[in-house]
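Bench notes, bay 3.
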Amino acid sequence: TEVFWNHRDVFDQESATLMKDRAIDNMTRYTATVEESKEINSRHNGMPKIIISASGMCDAGRIKHHLKHNLWRPESTVLFVGYQARGTLGRSLVDGAKRVRIFGEEISVKARIEMFEGFSGHADREGLLSWLGAMRHKPARVLLIHGEKGSIESLAETIHKDFHIDVTIPEYAQSVTLGLEVADKRLAVMETGRYASLAAVHMLEILREEFASTMESLHRELKRAATEEEISVVTARIQDIENRLKLSETL
């Protein structure tokens, strides 16, 4: 939470406006340690409360402790706000499991289980296609690893058709070696040092173009800025990028 709060300068206008008001902090208790988190279900048990916890699919993290102490309580509600992959504890609950195993113990599910659609921070199908389409340098291959089988197969077909990119949908536990794809196959037999140099040059060209594009975008934002605060935020971002560039030149 503090990471987001300390970098408000990178937010868009809507998010920045929301972040100006931290009144909700007066009603919120942040638990920085595992022990503090466990106290929620011991010292504060029985008190009405809203617990926001991770991981989102309930397969790891502090959420498992909270579920263990609350799933069996009919007065509790477990509200999911993100995608639940098959094979996860979260998916089992969403699909209506009556009993689940947590930390080796069978837990009866008597709590109310609800799913809040549309609250995910992930891009949807159209968002992903738009993001990929905007790339100046398209990748040689795309790997789709997150989503329902039918959905990712359809997305893979569209990516291949629209962008002529090879798409791979890895199987469970499959290993994939990532690397720079080159058109001239003869380069594949070159020594490692030469191959690494080629990759570095290619990456520098991409970074140079992306840097120029980013600076152009920021200067456009600066021209549109209407208040001193907006001008200050954009100016700080430009200065930060320029400082990083100067630092990289000295390395």
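Next record in the batch:
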Amino acid sequence: MWTKLVTSGISFYQKLIIRLEKKWADHHPPSFRNYVLFKKGTSATLVDINDLLRIWTRSALEGGGFSQLLPALSRRELYVLRQVPRDLLRLSPVLLLAPLPGTIFILPLFFAFPRLFLNRSFWTDEQRDRFDAEQLQFRQQVAARRVLASLHDAYSRLRLDPHTSAPMNQYLDLLHYVHEQILTGTYLSSECLMRLEPLFRDKLTLEKLSKTHVFSLCLLHDLPVRVRFSPFRQWPWLRTYLEPDYFHLRRVHMLRFRSRLLLAEDRIVDHELRDPGWVTSLSSSELKDLCSLRGIKTMHKSAEESTKELKRWISISLNISNSSHAYRLHLPVFLFNSCSD
């Protein structure tokens, strides 16, 4: 008896909601579209949170930290581990207000600033394409130039260092050559670029990069950074002297973890790319996400061209040392800023 009452009550409630939603859609389509986006976004976010909790639980039970767990994760789990913690921070105002009555009336505020308050699950397809294109353009035109400038500063500093060995000076000359070719938009072969790796395992490891260099790398890989002192924008070199070491060490840790995530995903994608059926079944949005993460432009390019550049990244990434984090993180500059589109 009670089961029937509960079932009929739930059924009545569902029908009532459907009827109210239909009336809402008929009388005020714009606000109803926001409501649908909010409902779908909330549902997708809850799924992501559940997946993240499952990964955290698995890591805690197995021990050893995330670094040892990464090779055993799927591509979906790597995405969750990379993106969801950042999304939760951005969504915190929405998640706190969502259970409260009357939240529906302030939804327009959130949707007026979707990039500030909402994550990808709440964006429309048009917003997602526009925001991704703008962010990738910033990474390739602004952040990449800062990284190149930092590389040139490191080259000049090491060249003047009397303790730099002769073999390292040869690698520095190669770095200078690569730097000049990138500035002129000249294509560089993978073999030429891979010859730089020993330099990044010795003199240019993440721990030895300047604060400005590390900050620029974070911008290049779209990692969360905050400019806590406004003069840093105009005079980045001030960061070396005025910014506390804690922020620098935290950024180094984020970059190292991003490199490990990229390596783990590269291994999965490399295995999947060997299956011709997987390549043809890969959706355009998935291919775009894989490329965008690595700084590869997909706009005005065919799927074959984007896949070719993705394969080039993976080939280099998997043929260098697993611990060459600094080199792997510079690949967007070496590979895709050397090719004029």
